[in-house]
Specification:
Elements (H helix, E strand, L loop, with lengths): L6 H21 L7 E2 L3 E5 L3 E7 L8 E6 L2 E16 L2 E16 L10 E5 L2 E7 L12
Parallel strand pairs: 1-6
Antiparallel strand pairs: 2-3, 3-8, 4-5, 5-6, 7-8
Length: about 140
């Protein structure tokens, strides 16, 4: 039996793949108000590491930073409640959304001297590098 290539079969297969991807996006946490990873920049400056993260729509009070074992974790959570009341009708919806991301830092840092600022949805974290004192190696 000879199988022939058909452009229409290829287009049908491609359409099915696209539909599967779009269906997956509809059901993904991104569309359900779950957590997303913020976009970040990491700069390894001379004496510090600078992390910038975009957290659109968040307020400073909703952002939490932790650092442990050279891993910075950014968490931001927003809870909204919408309600609408009409005659014999009550509509209420709760939306929980936010951002969460853990970043392994490229060098050893001094966690105690970390500083952060938040302005117009942009978080900037500056963490000084841990001073390397050098170590003499004994030759045996």
């Amino acid at each position: 039996m000879v199988m022939r290539w058909s452009p229409f079969d290829e287009l049908r297969r491609l359409r099915e793949e696209i539909e599967n991807v779009l269906y997956g996006l509809e059901r993904s946490p991104l569309w359900e108000g779950e957590y997303r990873e913020p976009l970040i920049d990491i700069v390894d400056a001379d004496d510090e590491v600078i992390i910038t993260a975009e957290l659109p729509g968040m307020r400073k009070e909703e952002v939490e930073l932790t650092i442990s074992d050279n891993v910075l974790t950014i968490s931001a959570k927003r809870e909204e409640e919408k309600s609408e009341e009409k005659e014999n009708y009550l509509y209420r919806e709760r939306v929980y959304s936010g951002y969460q991301r853990s970043i392994r830092l490229p060098v050893e840092v001094d966690e105690e001297r970390a500083k952060a600022t938040f302005n117009n949805g942009v978080l900037e974290v500056r963490i000084p590098k841990r001073a390397s004192e050098g170590k003499r190696i004994e030759i045996k």
